Amino acid sequence: xxxxxxELGEWYMKLQEVGNVHNINLVTPEHVVPQVVLSILHAAQxxxxxxxxxxxxxxxxxxxxxxxxxxxxxxxxDFKVWExxxxxxxxxxxxxxxxxxxxxRAMHKQxxxxxxxxxxxxxxxxxxxxxxxxxxxxxxxxxASRTRKGPGAGESGDLGAxxxxxxxxxxxxxxxxxxxxxxxxxxxxxxxxxxxDPPGHDGFNx
Length: 206
Known about the structure:
Elements (H helix, E strand, L loop, with lengths): L4 H13 L6 E4 L5 H14 L5 E5 L5 H7 L5 E4 L6 H8 L4 H16 L4 H8 L4 E2 L47 H13 L4 E2 L11
Parallel strand pairs: 1-2, 2-3, 4-5
Helix pairs in contact: 1-2
């Protein structure tokens, strides 16, 4: 469905007034930031009150983030990998880590701290915390590798590996209980306690 920025802004209003949503969550909108900016400005004129969440891979340009300054309430930024060699192989972008660091610094400059320690110390130790563990390998992960001869072999997830071996083998798994526990312990050390744990029954977690 194609929408003009104004029509998109009107959908924000419908979600606020009819859907009774708590925020407008914009997921990976880097490629349409100018249109998103216009939609937010239009919705603000119509009376939008719910927070704007910019949900991003952090592979954003500083120019895009500059356009968003003053319009985004919460930056929900991923930081997928740290090493350039890893980002080149897994994401096909060796500049991802550098771009993400630069982008996250710019986001932080706009909206300030929003981490566990900050929540505990400056907001409330009673806030709800959801430690998400639903990562599931998909797309090319775990598929049989292909081989390629010549320069560059072995630089990406499927090049240069043995025929038939799994692609991106190191991320071909779910999150472990130990990893989830590690994050949980960090949150608890910060003084947080109100965790959104899965209910032990078929119903709502209240």
